[in-house]
Amino acid sequence: MTQQLQASQALQAELLDLAVAAAERAGAFLRDGRPADLGVAATKTSAVDVVTEMDIASEKLITGYLGDHRPDDGFLGEEGASVEGTTGVQWVIDPIDGTVNYLYGRPAWAVSIAARKDGETVVGVVHVPMQGETFRACLGEGAYVGEQPLKAGAAPAFGQALLGTGFGYREERRIRQAEVVRQLIPQVRDIRRGGSAAIDLCDVACGRLDAYYERGLNPWDYAAGELIAREAGALVGGRPGEELSTELTVAAPPGLFETLQGKLDELGAWHD
């Protein structure tokens, strides 16, 4: 083993340990600090404000913890964290992925943290506090939930595939996404809308979904989950021949991925 490879593996191990610790700290804070009547007794405006405050506080907790251990790294976060850094390492953070689920007290929300080295994602952690699960992956080293290795399911026939997807917040986009679902759902087993892109990608990694697609994701939505899915054996991309992006994200095992990707392209799932 070369010294360069050893150094790379040591860095990934360090980044993984920090990401897991930061995600679990933030998850405990969000779980234990959520008001019991949030989304019930509160008005819409105040409820959203509380969630925004929790989002910001969670991101500050994460960036503070990581910054204490690696003060020269960069950050990219949903709630505004944007620091260049000088080490080539950038942390990509979603402090609450599945905010509406969190607002309503539904369990499908997660803390998502990825680490990129020189632009390439090398570590991904998705912590799901209400399920008691932490999904994790290092580049080239496989994916795990806890200590259990993950392996994406075998590709079913397209007509037997269970798909996951999500919807944006803008009316025009939602209308277009609903039309894609209307045309797609008669061709598959069923379609689920879980509310957290990070969890959906992990569900592909562990076989709870056969495939997942969505338009409109940001890097903090997919950075950790897509590495976990890839390291579990799934393919992840965008339109045919393209990388995943805000335009379109598709994840599925080989054999199903290509078929779904082609159908989504035909249906125009990549545009509003």
From TrEMBL:
Catalytic activity from the UniProt record: a myo-inositol phosphate + H2O = myo-inositol + phosphate
Cofactors demanded by this protein: Mg(2+)
Keyword NAD found: no
Pfam family, one: Inositol_P
Keywords: Hydrolase, Magnesium, Metal-binding
Gene Ontology molecular function, alphabetical: hydrolase activity
UniProt keyword Cell membrane, yes or no: no
EC number of this enzyme: 3.1.3.25
Top-level class of the enzyme under EC nomenclature: hydrolase
Signal sequence, renumbered to the chain: none
Top-rank taxon: Bacteria
Similarity remark: Belongs to the inositol monophosphatase superfamily.
Name this polypeptide is given: Inositol-1-monophosphatase
Organism for this UniProt entry: Streptomyces solicavernae
